[in-house]
Amino acid sequence: MNPTFFYFLPSLLLIGIVFRGLGEAYENKPLACVLVEEIGGGGSSIPRTIRQTPVELYLMDPLNLIPEAPITSSPETLHLHVIDPSGKLLSPRLSSCEVTYLLPQEVPLAWVRSLTEEKRSPRALGHPWYSLSVKDDSDGNTVSAVLGPQGEKDDQLTVFLAVYSPSATLYARLGDPLAVPCGFWRGQQSRFAVEWRHRALGDGSVLYAYDGRLDRIEEIFQGCEMNFSTLHSHGNASLLVDKVAVSDHGTFLCTIYLPYIRAQRDMQLEVTALPVVTFLPDPLFARPGEEITLSCEVSRFHPLEISVDLLVRLPGDSQFSVLPGVSLSTHTLNKDGTFSLTASLSITASPERHGARYFCKVRHVSAPEGITRSNTLQVAGVAGLSLEDGMYLFAVALALYGSLSFLHRKFKLFFGTHESKKDE
């Protein structure tokens, strides 16, 4: 047998594995999407409406090694055949797919103007373009892509730009540094620009703007920066925030511009601050029949949504019970944007409640397991002389002994001196 056969056989196996991987990546099952269009209006009295058209998106094999799937859907369905050189649309768990028409055009922004300064648009802009947004509902991964013509056929498309982020919602602790993630793929296109905006309560502002072609920062907000090394080499456009403030709560928008096209990802930032919980009075001592007020002070937390409960475990019981009638104060807004409030309840001490343990339990998004503080009620005269009482009596006796010893020495010195003078 020819020895070269033993070298050729592993190559065949490797090629088979590659073909199988391609077949699994580019499955015959299309990705079910919806084309969203706004129709109507146009200055007439007809109101605008939203029309949704079913779309089947077929991921094509860029090497044409995998046969195309037969089309079996209804004629009303729009069929799009897409080549994805970015590799961001290959996840089999992608869902929530939405497609809209895209009109390529110049953008009148200082950090985008250099991308189209020649004023010559490519012929491909005369064909239909689409904006695609897909999401993985299991982990929140989201991709926004721009689909443009691959050839002369309007249903043959390719990915020109892909912008992606690992999650649609971020949580950051107040005062901590933060990297708001945003990655992008631009193929061989060397001209690009990055823009970061922040939007809260309807107001929007530019945090960072960078012209990648001119390598120039056009806008920058204090405390924000980007890593230009990973930006150019790996398409990592993450925004680095030095210290998270309550004012950062809201939506961060990452927009990547290429000549005439753009794609955007938006991420919701939830700023959290861990509550400081104080349960008073501490220690919890009372006389029989005395009314005392339990106060659970919860301060410097964010966001506002919070739950505060007072509970009790009576002597001999193993179960907790929620105390009714707890009153909550109105929340106080602190200078740093955090909140504070107090939960209070009046109880009457009795010998039967001696040793009862009272709890304040706080539930907040910053503390998934909750925060608990507790005090034990000590009713005077119920358990006899306690260790604390003995320590107090010992301290009093020690102080009294010291005072009497000091006075004894003073009197002895005084009378001794007086008697010596009389003898002289």
SSE layout and pairings?
Layout: H1 4-25, E1 31-39, E2 49-59, E3 78-83, E4 95-102, E5 129-135, E6 142-149, E7 156-165, E8 169-173, E9 178-180, E10 183-185, E11 193-200, E12 203-211, E13 216-220, E14 224-225, H2 228-234, E15 239-241, E16 250-258, E17 261-272, E18 276-280, E19 284-286, E20 291-301, E21 307-313, E22 321-322, E23 327-328, E24 332-333, E25 339-348, E26 357-364, E27 367-379, H3 387-423
Parallel strand pairs: 1-4, 2-3, 3-7, 8-17, 19-27
Antiparallel strand pairs: 1-2, 4-5, 5-6, 6-7, 7-10, 9-15, 11-12, 11-16, 12-13, 14-15, 16-17, 18-20, 20-25, 21-22, 21-26, 23-25, 24-25, 26-27
Taking strands numbered 1, 2, ... along the chain, how are they ordered across the largest sheet? 1-2-3-7-6-5-4
Q: Mind describing the biggest β-sheet?
A: 7 strands, mixed, barrel
What's the CATH architecture of the largest domain?
Sandwich
The helix/strand order is: HEEEEEEEEEEEEEEHEEEEEEEEEEEEEH
Which CATH class of the largest domain is shown? Answer: Mainly Beta
From the 3D structure, determine the CATH topology of the largest domain.
Immunoglobulin-like
